[in-house]
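For the sake of clarity, the format in which proteins appear in this thesis is described at this point. The fold follows as a row of integers, each naming the local backbone shape at the matching residue. One such record is shown here in full, so that the layout can be seen directly:
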Amino acid sequence: MYHKRWRIEKAFNTVKRLLGLSYLWTGSINGIKLQIWATWLFYAVLIDLGDAVADELALPVDRISIEMIYRGLYHFSVAGQKGLTDNPITYFAAPENRDLGIVKSIRKPRVRLIIAPFPTRQKNSEDFFFEASSQTLLTTGIQA
């Protein structure tokens, strides 16, 4: 549930960083509106393409990298010009194109760090695992 909370933040980050909406091409109001509209429209197409690829691979949408689909469009266009493909969904889902990185790898679960010098003897003590203290001061200045 936590990763869905940040979906809007990730969308804005993708649009600004990946699709270049952080830089405006013109100073006129009409040009700015056109750039924003076109960028969000292209983002919607990327999301729809990612959803279709996820359906083709029978994976959840969260496992598909929108950034890698965007970067893979170049490879798709080159393959299309050579006459090798005409459907981006089947191109991105094909096993021979796994090296494009469309499917995100599953992260390893978090492992707690054991800091006990003798773990077999100190297993149930409070100094067995490393715990980040919430009371640690993050400032480097001298406290008066």
